[in-house]
Amino acid sequence: MITLYLAEDQSMLNTALSQLLNLEDNLEVLGSATNGKHALAEIQRLQPDVAILDIEMPMMSGLKVAEVLHNKQLATKVIILTTLAQKTYFEKAVEVEVDGYLLKDSPSDDLIETINKVMMGRTVYDPELVVTALSSNKNPLSKREMSVLKAAASGDATKVMAQKLFLSEGTVRNYLSAIFSKLGVHNRLEAIEVAKKNKWIN
């Protein structure tokens, strides 16, 4: 069973989404909030597997909640929901390493699929948000993701990459999955091509 916490400032949407998620056999909503401050306190108390946060909320934004959870190194995965494909929001989401970043008008099936994927250690970013962010040529990858991409660009196999970076092969694969998601690509070659085109690597 995957436990969830939902923070959404529109009460009707909050209730509807909670009911929808609870219909899934493997999902359980432990609680919900309509403001960020309450959500943060409850998430720290309940420690759900996944927190689903609206980006714009009273008292504290979803991104601020995500930042605090990141700094406290809580195990809770974070999925951000937004109505706008704003570059600044995307960049902040990347900075605080949220696990999922979706447009609020995405189909509910996409959210459920994202919950399951982040629980497997994957990072899921909406392609439309990625395209908007990449149009600024700003690198959305973390330092660790860049080190993994550089190792991939040198042609190393996953096992060799893991040895060089002192990581497990599974962790390397998770980083590659996050890189592909953030860059809106499907494989290493495409990721390397995007990085070279934007001059993030030589």
Count of separate DSSP helical elements: 10
Reported for the largest beta sheet, the result is: 6 strands, parallel
- CA radius of gyration is 17 Å
Helix content: 40-55%
Which stretches are poorly predicted, pLDDT < 50 over at least 5 residues? none
Structural class: alpha/beta
Mean pLDDT: 86
The secondary-structure element order is EHEHEHEHEHEHHHHH
Strand order of the largest sheet: 2-1-3-4-5-6
Strand content: 5-15%
Q: In angstroms, what separates the terminal alpha carbons? A: 45 Å
Shape: globular
* DSSP strand tally: 6
Topology record:
Blueprint: E1 2-7, H1 11-22, E2 27-33, H2 36-46, E3 50-54, H3 62-71, E4 77-82, H4 87-95, E5 100-103, H5 108-119, E6 124-125, H6 127-134, H7 143-153, H8 158-165, H9 169-183, H10 188-197
Parallel strand pairs: 1-2, 1-3, 3-4, 4-5, 5-6
Helix pairs in contact: 2-3, 4-6, 7-8, 7-9, 7-10, 8-9, 9-10
